[in-house]
Amino acid sequence: MLRKAMLAALCLAALHGPVAAQNGLAPLREAAEGLPAILAQNPEPFQMVFVDYSALAVVAGGRAEWPDAALRRIVLGSELPPLATLRRPADWGAAAGVTLQQLRSMAGVGKSLVVWRFDRPARLEEVMAHLRQRGFVEAAGGMLQDSGPIPVMDRMRDPWRSLRSAGVTVARQGDTLVQAPQANAVRLLTGPGESFAAEPVNRSLLEGVEAQLGEGRVVQALFFSPALGLKPGDPAALLNRDPGARLQLPAAGTGQGLPPYRRGLLVDVAGPDEAGLLVALAYPACVEAERAAHRLRERWSALGQAAPLRSSGRAVPEADGSCTASVLIEVAPAGMANPALDALWRAIQLREATPIDIG
């Protein structure tokens, strides 16, 4: 399946330009490189959400207007405030000053920071002009601001005003626009230090995904903390806030769940014939990663998740002795949906047992 996805992307290149031919991990890695490593210290379950719109074009079969079924696939992207305002694509595009098809990707961290990438450089200036027309005013450093307060209805309808009621700042950063509640959050991206992608645990997660991705397309992705694997009743104190440290659980790995992992990455993979869910989990040692890869596949079947056509798991070693458990679940698509991702995401939202639970 995943090897065939390159052919679909190349066919779309004639319709959508050179960006559509981009495949593999590059767009996700690019987005992670544009965010600061300090975000990896966030103990919240969702650390970074990513959506690749050029890959969504593959899901939509190259149609000029994407059907609702393609848009409903973006379940992880619903955690990004601008996408939470999406009701009718035409209305969303009018408010945003750009259509979904004119975006390359979007990445962000809850209501703290969203980075927009466009299909061509000139689009950025067009959107900035659009924001000025819609009431954003010039601020220091070339930023645009709506100082607020922003009415609730505006936050529900306007993707650029969707973060918080107190106000919003938009700033140009290279070939991207950064949306944040305050100018200080924008400055995080220009400060010294390594990127989110270069942070050691995240680097190993990306390598774990790359080891199984083949020529598939990443439609959306979620970096998550071990907190996502804890269910209500798990003491918050068990979570060591040091992102490089192991999650400390009593009798870790002795139950039906997974050995405690450092961090994880969920990836929705698109192919022309099948859909894939790729799960990467970072461990301090390969013996734990191997056990986790095996147990995750067992739990997938035991919990009655979407029936896989194929599944594969492996441990991807790092030079420092750490390892990433990388598991790929391939399923038959349901129209334009990914049943594997939908099943896991629904269980996460309902706080039900999932294959990535720790215990």
Features:
359 residues; alpha+beta; twelve-stranded antiparallel sheet; 12 strands; globular; disordered N terminus; signal; Polysaccharide deacetylase
Walkthrough of the structure:
Keywords: Signal. By secondary structure, this protein is α+β, with helices and mostly antiparallel strands. The chain has a domain at 51-190. The chain is built from 12 helices and 12 strands. The chain has helices at residues 5-16, 26-33, 53-59, 68-71, 81-84, 89-96, 121-133, 152-157, 183-187, 200-213, 286-302, 339-349, and strands at 46-52, 103-109, 113-118, 137-138, 144-146, 168-173, 176-180, 217-224, 264-270, 275-283, 310-317, 323-331. Strands 4-5-6-7-3-2-1-8-9-10-12-11 form a 12-stranded antiparallel sheet, sandwiched between helices. A hairpin with a 4-residue loop joins strand 9 and strand 10 (275-283). Helix 1 (5-16) crosses helix 3.
